[in-house]
Amino acid sequence: MKVVILAGGFGTRISEQSHLKPKPMIEIGEKPILWHIMKIYSQYGFHEFIICLGYKQHVVKEFFADYFLHTSDVTFDLAENRMEVHNNYAEPWKVTLVDTGLYTSTGGRIKRIRDYVGDESFFLTYGDAVANVDICKTLEFHRAHGKIVTITAVNISQMKGILDVGKDDTVQSFREKSDQDASLVNGGFMVMNPQVFDYLGDGTAAFEKEPMIRLAADREMKAYYHKGFWQCMDTQREMKYLEELWQSGKAPWKIWDK
User: Fold this and answer.
1) Phi and psi at residue 220, in whole multiples of 5°?
2) CA-CA distance, 96 to 133, in Å (whole number)?
3) Contact 83, 103 (CB under 8 A)
4) On the chain, which terminus has fewer CB atoms closer than 10 Å, C or N?
């Protein structure tokens, strides 16, 4: 099965970094978060990727074009006009990079890679979140229920204290956050049957709006509950948090050996 990754947005909420590069190319442990996501899928045996590009797409294309330069020691023999790559471990990946437009919605980006997917089911995820989700169990769950879409549902805890405010603006009670205040959200790591393309219309709507609303109304979407680690990288603070986890040597999403 192919893995489709949405990597074309502007990443405006982390503009400190994204003004230089697409958000999926922001580095955690000196590797783009996009690379981390691909390593997760690859660990479960899924090595074929279709990456939906838009904003600063050349950065992504240049990374893969010069992959060995980013990941290996190299010797340049300038006199002989020759390059020697040392310790060149090769990922078992086939990567298709697709220009899906600069201002295209997520629904439109998915629509534009239909010919690359064909009539097969495929994985779909966002290029800015990592998790220790079991990809094979997600796929098994999807195949068992027979619906068009499976989304991985993750629990996001309330970050702040809870206020109960009366009509006259008086704070009637205050308590710290608890697990009961958490919300389930779409964590990506989705599985799609090809019938999902019938819900995309003309591709102008974000996938998370009209298409998903219609899928839910038609009872064609199921949630796979992931209770382990999940973290997106929307802000500078979240980027630093992921970097700290990586540098600690205990990054929960690092399920691969090398």
Assistant:
1) -110, 20
2) 24
3) no
4) C
